[in-house]
Structures are given as C-alpha cells and as structure tokens.
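We examine the record.

___
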Amino acid sequence: MAESFTGIDDETKQKLIKDGLDKVYNYLYANYDRKNPEQMNKQEKARQIEILHSLIVTYGAENVWDEFITHNIPDHAINILKRVQPDILESQKKQTARVELQEAGINTRGTSATFGIEEPGYQQALADELPEIAEKTNFNTLLLGAMSYHSANEFAQFSKKINERVIPTAVDMEDYSLSQADPKLVRTIKTDARNIPLPDKSQDVIFSNQLLEWLRKEGLMPSGEVILAVLREAFRLIKDGGCLVMSEKTPSYEKENLTSWMALLLLEATLKDLGFDKISDYSELRYPNHLAKKSGNLDNIYEDKKSERGKFVPFHFIVKAKKKESAIPLDYKETTGFQH
C-alpha cells in the first residue's frame, strides 16, 4: 500500500531512500553473476527499474542520485587519495612538462575515453535509426562534454558518416577541451551543460561520452542535482522522436562492476521519469581487443575469458533513450507514494 512521505525530515528521507536502494542491491547480489551483469533477465531488470522509479517520483531524482553516490564513492575516493598523495609533487612536474609539450604542438594525450574509442557502441545503439537519419535534410547533433580534446573532431566525423548534411555542435566548460576542434568540422560552444544557448527541440541526436562522473557541484563527488539538471537540459534540446545516446562509466566504482550495473538501472529510471521513451541499454557490447589496447587504459577493462574471440568488456554502459512525441517532463515537486 502506498504511503505519503510529505513533511518528513531529511534524516528519515535519507533512510527511506537508502532502504529502497538496498533492496535493489540485495536483489542483484542474490540473483546475478556479477561478472556478467548483462545477463539479467529483462523482466527482473524492469522490476528493479520500477523500484527506482518509485523512489525518484517520491523523493526527487537528485536525492536518489546523491544517496547512491554518497554510499559508493567514499572508499574509492579515499583509496585514490592514498595512492596519489606521495606522488603529488611528481604529478605536478609531469603536468608542467605536459603543458610545455602541448604548447610546442606535441600531442601528449592518450586515446582513452575519446569519442572515437566509443564509436562502435554509438553505431550499434543507433542501428535502428540510421536509415531514417541518413535521409534527413535538417539534421543536428550535439556532444555534451568534449573530454580529450580530439573528441569533438571524432564526434563531428561520426556525425558526418551517418548524415552528410549534419550540423554538429560540441559543448564544454573548458577551453582546453575545445581548443583542438576543427572549426571546419564542428561548431563549439563554451558553456555549462545545464544551460546551453540553443533553441528548444533543436537537436536530433545528443551524445555524451564519459560525462556523468564529472558533473560535480563541489568537491570530489558527482552531484545528483547537477546530473539531473544536465539530463533535463538534454530533454529540452532534443526534438520529439529524437535520441539521447550516453556512453558512461558509473559515477562510482565497485569490485566486479555491480555498482556500474546499479548506476545503469538508476539512469534508466531517471530518463523514464523525465519523459524519455524506449530506453535501451547496450551493456553487453564487446569491444575489439585492439581498441582496448589502443585506449591505453586497461585498468577499467577486464578480459572476457569466456569469449573465444579474445575481446574485452569495458566497465561502463551505453544507453539510448528516445524522446516521446510531445513529451512533457514530470514535475519532481509533486510527491506520490512509494510502494514498500
């Protein structure tokens, strides 16, 4: 039976949200091979999304994201700080040297996390839409966050592959991330992804690439409030029937990727609540061996021992969400009951 939780204090609210998240965690721990989380039964996965959806409707997505992040980031963050603290001075020296090399026109950046590395995933996620996309005469794409300065160019090149008439735009808060974008390939806008100076319903496809973990309000941890604001802005910009395609690491990390799977479910529930439809995930994607090696970042990739083709599984997920025709986002201020 649904209960109303209006007027409850913050401490009680936090406990209720944590209890709801624990339900999903416990279910995952009890029922799934955590090394192969993509094997989750679709019906049971939908059940977990409904639990998270109820939490979001009741308490607001930013509260649920913040509770999720708070319970999963600290150990990882502390371990990082412990590991890097003795090397801070050396890292500063390396950073100074890196800047000097970059100013001399020498590329010191690896290819990890760039748009090009993720391109096979984007291609597969949009497979159903590609024939229609190719025929559009007014086609616009947007990249949220140009992490690694060549991502903007790679994004523009991919956009051109799927529609020759495309107008691609990349946005980022940092000059550095946009500095190498070729103005002949892509338009760039230096801006906060929560407030992008583009018209409503102006974009056919919006991409994000490893963005969520960097959406921070203050300090080290990502912010649920900022995550929700960016997703809302993407919803505003996408045309009815358009797509949001996200290749993301979880905003926290946990052994055997269970937290990544939890973040995937939470993201899908949030997108559903915003008004997106036909949400699909491609967490089962396998990336060729040479791409994993090319990335130079094998810390986030583990070998799929069962695969005869010797491929790798990245510790992240790809999600595609289509915007409903004439979709209206939910007002999170309206509180409803949560089924226990």
The domain at 109-323 is CATH 3.40.50.150 (Rossmann fold).
